[in-house]
Amino acid sequence: MRSGLLVSGRRGGSGRVVGMLHLRVVCPVDATDEVLAVLKAHPGVTHVALFPGAAIEPAGDVVAADLAREATDEVLSALCGLGIDHTGGVTLEQIDTALSDAADRAEEAAPGEAADAVVWEELLSRTGEESRLNATFLAFLTIACLLAAVGVVTNSPVTIVGAMVVGPEFGPLAAIAVGIVLRRWDLVRRAGLALAVGFPLAMLVTFGGAVLGSYSGLFDRTMVLSAHQVDFVFQVGPFSLIVALLAGAAGMLSMTSAKSAALVGVFISVTTVPAAGYAAIAAVLGEWAICGMSVLQLVVNLVGIVVAAAVVLALRNRRSRTRDLGRPLSNG
Fold it and tell me: Which superkingdom is the protein from (predicted)?
């Protein structure tokens, strides 16, 4: 993401952290006037600049602007209505700080609050990328499960928390919620595949590691079964679902409001990865009751997160549509 410092005709002004995005449009020359009309007509857009003939591939003009987060969805819809996403390209970058009266006016003129605005294209792009089954996702999930297994064996809640933070599973879970709400079943399938392949593979590797550890004398049944500080990992109860629901809601609010720091709190509040790691350890020891409860804990948390995230996103989507009802897009 890009950090921009914008100065507009004043000295000694105090910087404001604003909810603005930098927009860059590559468009055919014959569409430039329409693009400029869209941008200049919206009160939430400012700092509009034109670079004639600057684009090489695809050839055309480059138009840049800064826009309030609340205005982003309308502007993107209007630009896509012109077909710019097919004939050229549209990119967005985050601006952390702006020193500009014009930026202040644009943010004030845009309807709603920046923290409440959902940029749907940004959300689709982000969740789509994080839901892919790839080597990096599998590596992080496997490492997280192995850390969880170490935490179980050593009776270390701190190591369990470390495994929660490393685990990458919230990305696909959020993607499933987004896909359900927006009826993007391709996204649901892709994220579901990542989870369906990732967790069994990570648990299998952890099982293998646990077998080696058991045979080499690193731990035994008594050592694991006496580790009562980490019993919460497999103990399924009403609070398991409650925590999963709250975590899913907080995670989706964080993703849709660009407050990504809150995602860390989500990661360390749910026992998805730790449950998978405990299941592998329990299977090695032949403790099938604990293994079954760990798997149930995993399923409860995964389902709870998706349900809560989907509900939050559906409510935000409904509110956005209600707010925009009857207001035409600024399409020049």
Answer: Bacteria
